[in-house]
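Meet our chain:
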Amino acid sequence: MNKTDNKTDVVYVLGKGSAWNNNELRFSIRSLVKNLEGIRRIYIVGEKPKWIKNVIHIPCPDHFSNGQNNDGNIIKKVLRACQVQGLSKDFLFINDDHFILKPINILDIPPYQKGDLKTFPQEYFEANYWRGRLWRTMNILKKKGYPTFHYDCHTPILFNKKKFPEVISLFDYEKNTGYTMKSLYGNVVYGAGIHLGKNKKTIFRNYVYDDLVKILKNHSFASVNDTGLNVDFKIWLHINFPNQSVYESEPFSSTFTEIINWLNSGRDYHKGCELYLKYGKNINIKRFIVTRTQRSAQKKLETHLIKLIHTQ
C-alpha cells in the first residue's frame, strides 16, 4: 500500500454493552486523533453513542444473541462495513478498548500476532470460553492448510474490504461457537505477520496510577478489559488524552473531570467537600463530611468521590 494514496478509514464495531457508558470509545478515538496519521473517516457499526458526531454510523444489530458466538456478531458488522461503497479499499479495524500511544501512520500498523497457536499448551485454550473459540479457529486453519498464528492479540489490524468477505466465506463462522475473526483473516492474508513482542501492553488487572505510567511508558499500543478499567486507568486516560475531539458532540462528564483533577492535584479536603456537595446524592455522607474533622473524614470523602467516578 502506498502512503500517497487516499487516506484510510477506521472501523469500530459496537454492541449494546459497555463497562463505562461507551467512554472507552471516546478515549480510544482521542488516542487516534492525537497519534494516528492518515485517518480519512471513522465508521461506527452497530450501536451509536449519544455523544458521538462526525462519523459514519451503520446500524447493525447483533445476529447471535445467546452470547455463544460474539465473534460472529463482530464478523457480520465488519462484513456490513465492507458493503459500503465509500469505505476505503483498506481500512483499520480497531476495538473501542484499544489505544494508540505513540505517533504512527495508519498504513504502518503491522499485522501483529503473538505466536503459533500450535505451540500453546492445551491449558491455555481451557482457561475461558473465548479461548475455546480460538482453539476451534486453530483447528479449522490447520485443517484447511493455513498457518495458525494468534492474531487475536488485542491490537488494531488493517483489512482489505474486498479480501475480507472472500476470506470469511472460506469458513462457516455461524456454526457452533464460531471462530475468531482476526486469526482467520491474518493467517490467510498475512501468513506469519509480525510478532507482537513488547509493542503493546494489555491491562487485564488492577494497577495503581504510578504503575500504569511505568508500564505503558514504552509501548506503542494498549488495550484494557473490564477488570483493568479501574479508576486509576481512567485517570491515566484522562491525563494522556484530555482534549475533547471533533467526534464528540458534548464535553465529557464534568463530574468525572473535576473529581479526576482533584484526585491528581493534592486532594484538598475542602475542595473535595465542595465537589461531593455539588455532585453527591447521599445526604448522610454530606452531613458526615461537613461535621467531622478533615483527619477523620478524608478517607471516607475520597472513597465516595471515587464511587461517583464509576457512575460517569
